[in-house]
Specification:
Elements (H helix, E strand, L loop, with lengths): L7 E6 L20 E7 L3 H12 L4 E5 L14 E3 L11 H5 L1 H25 L10 E4 L5 H13 L6 E4 L16 E4 L2 E3 L2 H14 L3 E4 L3 E6 L5 E5 L2 E10 L10 H4 L3 E10 L4 H7 L5 E4 L5 E5 L6 E5 L8 H15 L8 E11 L6 E5 L2 E5 L6 H16 L26 H14 L9
Parallel strand pairs: 1-17, 2-3, 2-12, 3-9, 5-14, 12-19
Antiparallel strand pairs: 4-8, 5-7, 6-7, 10-11, 11-12, 13-16, 13-17, 14-15, 15-16, 18-19
Helix pairs in contact: 1-5, 1-9, 3-9
Pfam families: DAO (PF01266)
Keywords: Oxidoreductase
Protein name: FAD-binding oxidoreductase
Length: 443
């Protein structure tokens, strides 16, 4: 009998796999009309800010127009890295920013990963965290030069945490013949993002934060005394300090920030359970994985090692998650042929946000604090930026973040609606094809 179900397993659902174990839950509480700090956005950055403020005696209000943790914070791939993620989308950091400044960025990125591990242990966060390392596959021979530069940036800190893998040894990392070599980052890991954002919210609440979902910011203005008058869907709120952590879901109420962010949908699928033996056959080291293409893939084993989670830019328009699942399944099997015939149980998407300089940003503009533009690599970065933002609100720290010194730029006539993404997507796909990355004949 012909299989007419396509790649879909019985019971296939269009929602994040992570929500099976840790679904976002509505957070209800009275909305005070006056608070010390109002944080807009109930994801990792906002919750990290609230936790750090609470540990220093300041109780914050966190609001989100959806449930707390509903956005990309519980939809991402759960891959973690330090400074190794800085060069994921650009390899000309030294030319762009100068060697000395880049060294500061790298050192801070590496320290952020160490601090993340310490945070998980200190707060007892139940999130399936494991330090497993990351493998980045070179999609074309010339991509190895970019990986070499990235490894040199990381290793310049003296930690020697990155090394190159020649093509003849790729099979030790992944069961594919599609990569021309790769790079392994030792300071990298994985977690369950649904559990992480839930545990982070619980930790922030223990430190006195008030978390409320279903509340939308509709606008704000600066009062004469420097405080902020917020208009929300549940009434006015006065806040001495205002923090924005909305990233890929930044709306029209904050136009300055919206004009500096390019929201992009990222798509993921989860396979049916195939057993640890077969997962190890495909991904022998059980790391987190990515590649160097413009239209990149990212993938990993599930925390229980029984299935594979695979993500990428399945579409540069707002595609439905059933259609994107078929595309990602095709990509996955083309990359790892041993997964042919494996069905899918989940498909979902979430918005990431890019800055025009392809760098993450934290800082303050006209009194408004922000942490944004994770560029698709945000779990460690946004946790760190939440701590940085909290210290800024508290009056500073002994060391100013290097990332806070980056200029957060926009381009003329851009209003936050990325009409140009389909054209960029076509250009990226053409670039990948010119580099030699083509689907096998007949796909």
């Amino acid at each position: 009998m012909t299989d007419t179900s396509g790649p879909f397993a019985p019971g296939f659902v269009e929602r994040p796999y992570w929500w099976d174990a840790a679904p976002p839950t509505p957070a209800e509480a009275p909305l005070s009309d006056s608070v010390e700090v109002a944080i807009i956005g109930g994801g990792i950055a906002g919750l990290s800010t609230a936790l750090e403020l609470g540990r220093n005696g300041v109780k914050a209000l966190v609001i989100d127009r959806e449930a707390i943790g509903w956005g990309a914070s519980s939809r991402n791939g759960g891959a973690l890295s330090g400074a190794g993620g800085l060069g994921k989308v650009r390899s000309d950091l030294v030319e762009a920013f100068g060697a000395k400044f880049v060294a500061e960025l790298v050192e801070e990125g590496e320290s952020a990963f160490e601090n993340f591990e310490a945070l998980v242990a200190r707060e007892g966060l139940d999130c399936d965290f494991v330090r497993c390392g990351r493998f980045v596959g070179a999609h074309a021979p010339k991509a190895m030069e970019g990986l070499k530069r990235r490894a040199e940036l990381v290793n310049a800190t003296g930690s020697e945490q990155a090394f190159l893998i020649p093509r003849e040894r790729v099979a030790e990392e992944i069961a594919t013949d599609r990569f021309h070599g790769g790079m392994v980052l030792h300071r990298a890991g994985s977690l369950h993002p649904g559990k992480y954002v839930r545990s982070l919210a619980q930790a922030a609440a223990r430190q006195g934060a008030t978390l409320i979902g279903g509340v939308e910011l509709r606008g704000y203005r600066r009062a004469a005394d420097g405080a902020f008058a917020l208009e929300t869907s549940r009434g006015p709120v006065r806040a001495r300090h205002l923090m924005l952590a909305t990233n890929g879901y930044t709306g029209g109420a904050t136009p300055w920030h919206r004009r500096r962010l390019v929201p992009v949908a990222s798509y993921m699928i989860a396979t049916e359970e195939i057993g640890e033996e077969r997962v190890r056959r495909a991904l022998p080291k059980l790391r987190v994985y990515g590649d160097t293409k413009k239209v990149l893939y990212y993938f990993r084993p599930s925390p229980d090692y029984r299935r594979i989670l695979f993500g990428g830019r399945a579409s540069f328009v707002n595609a439905d998650t059933r259609h994107s699942a078929e595309t990602l399944h095709r990509f996955m099997v083309d990359l790892i042929p041993d997964l042919a015939g494996v069905k899918l149980t989940h498909s979902w998407k979430g918005n990431v946000a890019f800055a025009f300089d392809m760098m993450p940003h934290v800082g303050v503009e006209d009194g408004v604090h922000y942490a944004m533009a994770c560029n698709g690599s945000g779990v460690v970065t946004m946790t760190h930026f939440g701590q940085v933002a909290a210290q800024q609100i508290l009056g500073g720290s002994n060391r100013v973040s290097a990332f806070a010194r980056l200029k957060f730029k926009t381009v003329p006539l851009y209003d936050g609606r990325p009409w140009f993404m389909p054209f960029i997507g076509m250009a990226y796909q053409l670039r990948d094809r010119l580099d030699g990355w083509r689907l096998r004949e007949g796909r």
